[in-house]
Each structure stands twice: as C-alpha cells, then as structure tokens.
Task: inverse folding
C-alpha cells in the first residue's frame, strides 16, 4: 500500500509527542521539522509542505485547550485534521444529474488506468449505488482500448457503446448519450483517448467532447506512482478542462504517494476514488479522514 514510508515516519514522530503532559514551543518545532522531512521524503510538493507546516505550527502553538486530551494528543489531533484537509476534508460524492443520464468523462494520460477505471467505476456505481451504467469507447486511436473496454463490458455484463475507430470521438460521445436515454442507462461513462504526454490535440478533442455532451463529472485518472509529474499533469488538465475530480490509481503499489497528496492542494479538485488493484472491484470511494487515520495509525 502507498504511503507506508510516510506512515511509518509520521507514527514515529507522533509517538514521541503523544504522552506529553506539556508541549513546549520547542517540542512543536521539533515535531514539525520531522513532519516536514517525512512529507518531503514522501514526495509531497514542497509548496504544499510549506503551507501545511505553517498551519500546524500556528494551530499547535496557540492551541485551544481540550480537557479530554493531553497536550500531546491535541497536537496529534491538529496534524490529523490538517492531513485530512490536505486530502480534501469532507468526502466528495459523485454527481447525479437532475435528468438522467449523468455523464462522466474519464480523462488522463495513457497507462494511467483510465480504461480499467471506467470499468471499475461502472461496477461500483451498480453495486453500491444500484445504477445502470453504459460504457463508451471514445478512444479511437488505440483499437486495443476499444477491445479492452468491450471485454470489461462483457465481464460486467454492461453495454459498451462503440462506433469503431473511424468515427469522430465527439460524435461517439453525443450519440452514446442519445442511446443511453433510449435504453434508460442512468450513467454514461466516456473513456477518452490518452496520450503519452499532455498535448494540444488531446486537449482540443477533450474540450470538444466536453462542449458537446456537457458532462456532470470530468475525472482525471492519475497514476499515483508517477511522482511530481502527476501534479503537473493534474494542473494542465485542470487548466484546460476544469476538472470536477481526480481518481488516484495504483495506490496498492509501494509508491511514496506524496505527490498524489499534493493534487488536491494544487488543483483544489477533490480526490473522489482510489484504485487499489487491477481487479474490477478494487476501486474505493476516497475518504480523506479515513486515509489520514490510516497514515497516522
Ligand atoms: P489507460 O491507458 O489509462 O486506459 O490504462 P489501463 O486502464 O489500460 O491501465 C494500465 C495498467 O494499469 C493496466 O495493466 C491496469 O491493470 C493497471 N491498473 C489500473 N488501475 C490500477 C490499480 O489501481 N492498481 C494496479 N495495481 N494496477 C492498476
């Protein structure tokens, strides 16, 4: 699982301060220094770390006294609350359109896990929310992507809308929405093309699809293993498309994960789901508070 290194270091730091009946400014200083190093080592963006530490210092020093907690525990509470806020605070729910279908566009770089996540999300929507999704193959540049989605559709026993590789992705998306209305599919999840790098053609096409189907959600699928690059990718997709959320994939890997933690702070878009493995049922709602508890132990 990602964040293991971070988790271990933060837990060590916390252990030192936990039992303290009195927390001096020096204690806070030492603790924040260690937290800072742990975050940087986990590859959290340095600007994000700087703000984070500043907030903890302010809060931990001029702290409100709570009788039920020791001063040490109070400092830990501050760290936990700030870590939760860093990852987005409240859990962010998936959109539901006033009039179905709810349209979701999946965007991201090739290999991030977009197609797999399209299938996983459809599966989650059906299992957890009792929805009836349609998948849309709008990545016409890689025939393998269409086949991959069709295979997922078969495994899930869900419809996959495709017009092959000759059609225009903007048309495909628009026609899929019409088809979903006729067939009473309440969610339409559009798997769009990715590229190895962010480029203008990719963004143009995504903007055209967005303009054509007016999606309720635009999810950027980000590979948590890609480090600081993930932050840059998220920034450019967000600038161009005004994302509504992020799906982090491959959090089951032994990545440092910190870059992923920076995405919310940098884009101000919530992390909505986390991919925890290759299987179709390995996508979870992302709960900032639970994740913070998991990290802090
Ligand atoms: P796309 O090019 O963005 O559509 O990426 P794919 O959906 O084809 O996924 C690329 C690879 O990442 C595949 O081998 C997936 O099985 C794998 N993958 C996707 N999500 C996860 C995840 O959460 N955990 C792990 N371990 N692998 C994943």
Result:
């Amino acid at each position: 699982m990602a964040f293991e290194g971070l988790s271990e270091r933060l837990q060590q730091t916390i252990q030192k301060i936990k039992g303290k009946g009195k927390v001096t400014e020096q204690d806070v200083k030492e603790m924040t220094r260690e937290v800072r190093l742990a975050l940087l080592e986990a590859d959290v963006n340095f600007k994000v770390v700087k703000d984070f530490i500043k907030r903890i210092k302010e809060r931990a020093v001029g702290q409100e006294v709570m009788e039920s907690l020791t001063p040490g525990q109070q400092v830990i509470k501050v760290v936990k609350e700030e870590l939760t806020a860093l990852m987005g605070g409240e859990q962010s729910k998936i959109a539901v359109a006033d009039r179905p279908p709810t349209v979701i566009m999946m965007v991201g770089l090739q290999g991030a896990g977009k197609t797999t996540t399209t299938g996983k999300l459809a599966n989650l929507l059906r299992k957890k929310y009792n929805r009836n999704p349609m998948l849309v193959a709008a990545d016409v540049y890689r025939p393998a992507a269409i086949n991959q989605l069709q295979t997922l559709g078969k495994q899930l026993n869900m419809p996959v809308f495709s017009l092959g590789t000759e059609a225009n992705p903007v048309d495909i998306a628009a026609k899929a929405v019409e088809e979903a209305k006729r067939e009473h599919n309440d969610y339409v999840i559009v798997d769009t093309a990715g590229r190895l790098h962010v480029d203008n053609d990719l963004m143009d096409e995504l903007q055209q699809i967005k303009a054509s189907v007016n999606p309720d959600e635009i999810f950027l699928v980000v590979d948590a293993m890609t480090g600081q690059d993930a932050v840059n990718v998220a920034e450019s997709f967000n600038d161009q498309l005004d994302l509504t959320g992020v799906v982090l994939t491959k959090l089951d890997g032994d990545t440092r994960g910190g870059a992923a933690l920076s995405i919310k702070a940098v884009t101000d878009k919530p992390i909505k789901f986390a991919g925890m493995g290759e299987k179709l049922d390995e996508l979870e709602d992302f709960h900032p508070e639970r994740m913070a508890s998991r990290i802090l132990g």
Remarks:
- Residues 108, 110-116, 194, 249-250, 252-253, 275-278 surround guanosine-5'-diphosphate (CB under 6 Å).
- The mean pLDDT is 92.
